[in-house]
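Lab notebook, bench 4. The sequencing result for the construct came back, and we need a structural model before the next group meeting so we can plan mutations. Quick request posted to the team channel:

Model the 3D structure of this chain.
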Amino acid sequence: MLLDDVMPVYQFQVVRSTLVRAGPEPIFRAIRETKAADIPVFILLFWLRELPGRLAGRGRRYFSGGRTLFEQAVDDLGFIVLAEETDREVVLGAVAQWWTLFGARFYRVRDAEEFLRVDPAGYAKAAGNFRVEMDTAGGWSTLRHETRIYASDPATRKKFALYWWFIYPGVALIRRMWLRSIKRRAEAGELS
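Done. Here's the predicted structure in token form:
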């Protein structure tokens, strides 16, 4: 698994999976085409996350408009594609202070090499993947999403742990709804 190569050590994790009646190609197309509008709870939870920053006049609205979640994560947030195996797995990652009140503060990395090499004090690394495993006999695929977070120093781990405790229910819900949206889109694409 490519995610193991990118982040073999981590302290925090969320894993979700679902069965999809489609092959890898329509599933990966759906991963790249899913929009925030496809996941209403996503919009609500990010709106709540961004509220302190907007009230303080420092906020910036993410995940809006007609662009895909994938595009916005890579173009606007500081995530980069760390590894990819066509129609099998894609891994995104970022280095940030996720817990800041007015929105995450990103430490920009240019490529996977830099992501693996850097370990800035006070920041946590996050890597997440989408992975598809095809059951050739039944026409079903397992779509799996995993997010891993690593904080190198104890103070950062404590900050992230508190933040994680608070946001984990929303993160888990978003992952479930995101997979459901990808499943719906992929199965509709497979039928057309």
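The chain has six helices and six strands.
Will bring this to the meeting.
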